[in-house]
Hints:
The chain is mainly alpha-helical. The chain has nine helices and two strands; from the N terminus they run αααααααββαα. It has a two-stranded antiparallel sheet.
Amino acid sequence: MFGNGYFTTPPVVKNLIIINVLFYMAETILPAGVSNSLISHLALFPWGSGHFEVYQVVTYMFLHDWNSFSHIFFNMFALWMFGRQLEYDLGSKRFLTFYMVSGVGAALIQLLVNWGELQYLTAQLNANPMNGELFARISAIAQSPSVGASGAIFGLLLGFGMLHPNSVIMLLFPPIPLKAKYFVIIYGLIELFLGISGRMTGVAHFAHVGGMLWGFLLLWWWKRKGTLYY
């Protein structure tokens, strides 16, 4: 599957992994006050919450849930697994552009979804100001930032599926082989369903879909310009 050496790691993928791991170590090793400060300043807070800053659409993707080692482990494993081949395919500069566009695009979609939800709930609260449950839901959304490279990683999955549609991926659960193009379609539909249905809360499903959407649009644009063929 990897024509440039299975265990080699090109520079952008390597440095992205290093940066993510360093941030995770800072979150887990440094005093709690420093860790909380990283989250309060660099995580992605909903637009209109009073905590949002423009730079967060970039910085959020280098933070992870410090209480869940699996969060950063699986993100970095997917970055290493799929990002290497994409960096060889696109070149380091264009791969970094693709990664960042997917991650920032995911943040924009998440901001839009959170803003719409806050607007809807606020309108309901204005009509029924004594509803404590609505107030609690609004407060929870406003105080719940998004962190993680997952949006950018989903862009990579989409990119790998488009550039290598017939490559076979061995799933873990269930342990069956599946062509990349089908894997991407199935995974994308699952994330979209979970986002719309509201199941599996605590996960930014729309950000995942957003990363895939922006990754698709960028690859489509490059193909249209004639700078990429697949």
